Every structure is written in C-alpha cells, then in structure tokens.
Amino acid sequence: MKKSIYDTPIFFERYQQLRQNPISMNEVVEKPTMFSLLPDLTGKKVLDLGCGTGVHLAHYLTLGAEKVVGLDLSELMLQQAESDLSAHWQKGNDFSLYCLPMERLNEISEGDFDVVTSSFAFHYIADFSELLAKISQKMTACGTLIFSQEHPIVTCYREGYRWEKNQEKQQVAYRLNYYREEGERDRSWFQQPFKTYHRTIATIVNNLIQGGFEVVQMEEPMLADQPQWHNEFKDLQHRPPLLFIKAIKQK
What we know:
Order of helices and strands: HHEHEHEEHEHEEEEHEE
Low-confidence stretches: none
Number of strands: 11
Number of helices: 7
Helix content: 25-40%
Strand order of the largest sheet: 3-2-1-4-5-11-10
Distance between the termini: 34 Å
Strand content: 25-35%
C-alpha cells in the first residue's frame, strides 16, 4: 500500500500547525462552507473520505449522526483521530476508522451510508469516475455526496508564475494557460514532492452525472462579502481556492 505524504514528520507537524490556526483557509473557508451543505444528520450513517484527524467526524456526531466512519491513508492522522474521538465517543459503536486509500474504500466492512463527505482530497485521485462508482456502491438510494477539492483553476497550474502582477507587485490576474490540459501535476510542499490531478469543472460534473449523481449545489467561496479577511487572504479576492459540490445519488 502506498504511503501517505502526511506520515512524513515535517508534513504532519506543519499540517497540525495549520489546522490549529484559527485564521486559516480550513477554518475561514472550508469548514463553514462544507458544514453549510450538510443535510440533517440525525440518525444517519456518515462516511468521511480522507478524514484526517477526525475533526469533521466529531462534528457529525455532535449533529446527531448515529455512526461515522473515517478513511485515511495516513497512520499518524488516524492515530490522532482515534485519540480525539475516543475522549467523547465509543469506538466501534459511534465511530470506526480505516487506514486505506480512498481507491480501496470497497474494502471497508460498513456500507449503506446515508451521507458521504470528503474535504480537500479528491484532487489526489487519478481516476475520479472509478472512485465515484465505488462511492455509489456504498451509499443508500438518494444518499448525499458532499465534497471539496482544490478548484480546477488552481489544479491546472503546471509551471511558471501563477500570478500576473502590476508594477506595485499587486496580483492582478491568475494564469490559466494549462487549464484545458488535464492529468497529473507534480507538486511540492516543504520541499516534499507529491502528485495531484487536474480535471476541468466540466469533467468533474460530467463524471458525477455519468456516475448516477444529480448535482444540486455548487459553491466557489471567495470571501467577497467578508472584508474582514481581505488583508489576510489576498488571493481569495480574485479567484476561488476550493470547489464544493453537493450531489444526490439517483435510485
């Protein structure tokens, strides 16, 4: 089984620092938008793909979910998730955790989930349509899929400067010259190489439709109506960093 880059000590340490920062993209943009898309979770069974340290799982339980299941490739993430969740919830009855890549979600014992979520992770998946087929097999009829991923205008980046800037070094335009070229992208964070995958919005939506899902809502938060964050997140005034989609599995 492939190893998660988040099991690299420096990656996990920096990730924890980011998640503990109350002024971060996760706290200001991702979590509020994701949680706003949730249906009523009372008595529901929820699967979170790429669950990380289990923050979303804990929130789902507080919203009345009957059982939550988390899947992540990182052993360090899941160790933290189990420790945090066990402080308030009972393992096995309230939550279960699996150390698996999303592509192998068919190997988990639980099934028939009412809601499947994934935050900031689908851009790591090479074959999106295959993943959707496996998700569908684990869902109830009319189940809800909600996910966020890096926005395609972000994943399209391949090389060169991301931004065009004026003489005052202010960002005036985000370059999209590789948008139509789908496929693998080589990335680096803290000098650690990893891969993501670029798909256009049309490909993402068409994969959902072809996989038997009805798209019911999309969000591209840019903080336009939250000026208090404009100095902290200058990039978000010009382009959305994340794409959110809510879709319903058809019978």
